[in-house]
Amino acid sequence: MQAQQQSTATMTQLETAMAMLMKTFDTYAAGEGSKDTLSKAEVKTLLEKELPGLLKSAKNPGEVDKLFKSLDFNGDSEVDFSEFVVMVAALTCACHDRGSKK
After folding, report:
1. What angle do CA 26, 21, 36 make, to 5 degrees?
2. How far is CA 52 from the centre of its chain?
3. Which of 16, 26, 38, 65 has a CB 3.0–4.6 Å from the CB of 79, allowing a cystine?
4. Any idea which UniProt keywords this protein has (predicted)?
5. DSSP reduced 3-state for 74
6. DSSP readout, 21-64?
7. For residue range 35-75, what is the model confidence (pLDDT) as tens digits?
8. Greater confidence, 57 or 31?
């Protein structure tokens, strides 16, 4: 992606956000197994380190399992980059304070 080749000083905020998504995914995916997917353990570690508030608000430990299953669209017991981006987008929408005003 061209955004990765630009220096961070010249990147827009959105390009920087996209680069951080890619870097974050790659960092955690490199932990075990395939570097192109996140295992259940890697998803849990990512959530604990990158989204601690989300886990604290979860009332029971089964929430991580539930979230993992909802992310794994193709049922391969791993979360690929596309599935990860859907999670981030869904969480962003949930956190966005502007509801649809019709």
Report:
1. 30
2. 13
3. 38
4. Calcium, Metal-binding, Repeat
5. coil
6. HHHHHHHHHTSSS-TTEE-HHHHHHHHHHH-HHHHHH-SSTHHH
7. 999 998 898 899 889 988 876 766 666 766 777 777 778 88
8. 31
Integer Cα distance of 96 and 43 in angstroms: 23
Q: Which pLDDT score is estimated for 5?
A: 53
Given its phi and psi angles, is residue 101 left (phi above 0), alpha (psi -120 to 50 degrees) or beta?
beta
Query: ∠ CA 91-96-100 to the nearest 5 degrees?
Result: 115
- Distance (Å, rounded) from C-alpha 100 to C-alpha 90? 15
